[in-house]
Amino acid sequence: MNPSIRLLAPVFSLSAFAFLLFGVDAMAEQATDRLRRLSFWLGLIGSVVTALLLVAPSADLGPHIFGRQMLIWDGLSYFLSWIAVLTLFFVILLSERYREFTGMRLSAYFGLLLLSTSGLILLSSANDFLMIFLSIELFGVPAFILTGYLRHKERSSEAAIKFFLIGAFSSAMLAYGISIIYGLIGSTSLVQLHQSLPLLQDKAPLAMLIVFFLIVSFGFKIALVPFHMWVPDVFEGAPTPIAAFVSVAPKIAGAAIAVRVLGLALNPSSLGVLNVVAVLAVLTMTIANIIGLQQTNVVRLLAYSSIAHMGYLLLGLVASSTMGLSSVYIYGWVYLFMNLGAFAVVICLGNETGSNDLSSYAGLAKRAPFVSALLVLFLISLAGLPPTAGFVAKFFVLSAAFQSHWTWLVLAASANSVISIGYYFKILHAMYFQKPVDETPIKMPMSTRFTLAATSFFTLFLGIFPQIYLVKSQSLAESSQIRAISAPVSIAEMAPAAPATPEAAVQP
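Now predict its structure.
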């Protein structure tokens, strides 16, 4: 088999299942339970098949360049592809019994989810600015439609418009930056950009302009302060499963591309890139945590939490080392499980009460003690407290930054972790120390039970036995170095496909 086709097989798989779902939606005359079940299983099977087709890179042999040198498969691509596919898998599970989807046909919904994920996989493998731009649009257009999928809700339509306008503006900024790059070096390739660093240093004003447009564009994608304004409204207005999807996959994708472009292709120690990113990281953590303390809607609270966590994740980029890149992998993987676990509880309770206000969590420990205990686990992990995976993730990004002599940044991140405990424990206080308005037991569908079981297992497991993932993240980081980009390997030399189950994904 042609190596390029083998590496593009996950994208082909997602696209094929997506268009199959679009065909099912076009032929269906009305929404029925049978149609919903068929759509659900097609989406779920599509995500599992895609996971089976992912190829593990080799740290010894370096990355594989393909697609006329516009795509690359390395540790960064492999890591983010798993993040995207697992996020898709869990969001499909959480969408099955979502209350506001009652009576709606979901074939197109699941198809758009799969198509958007295919854009994320291409984005993670992009080795050229044109491919980055096209991949962002392939993700962004379906995500914009999914954000406004509840057409009968005014807030959902408003969220979709805001998401669209912000996406269009950030894409325009990226396109302008790409045009300057092409005019300066005569190419849009990341490899050519890396080889032209001496020219960029000679043309410092233009180089700074390029960095400005790139940071603004990526800042909007991953919601860095002051480019975060769209996130709370989009999270609150979109269907909650889509808020969960947007909270993980595209932000990790944007962070990964920032690592590939700003951390690998460009020399991060020159042009003032690291100082700018460090300041943005501190602003993002501080402002998001302070505003998060004032929130009374749990979805908006998790929105500001997701913004703050992007600030912590950027510490790995600022560290500018193999350990820093490895800590980004660890943080992204851990964030996937603890954040989606928290959203699973929010969706479960929202289905029962029809509200995401903090007041609806009053006395939840009496109504659903098991669900409350799991939410405590996820919130403790998000706060970065032991013995959870969140503590391990924060420890390693802080260690990477400290070893690179960013002491003031470590102190700022540590202080912000303490601040974040305040708004996470607001939810805990409501659950355990307030009287319940309703003592009716909470019902959970099997798909939500499975999601909670998987996310809680990894949130604890990676906190107690982190060494299992440390070895894997280190090898992935070593295979993502730009120095190895000139020596692509054949597909036959790469490892066999990774297993599709989340449990097996963390095996070394």
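Residues 3-505 form one domain.
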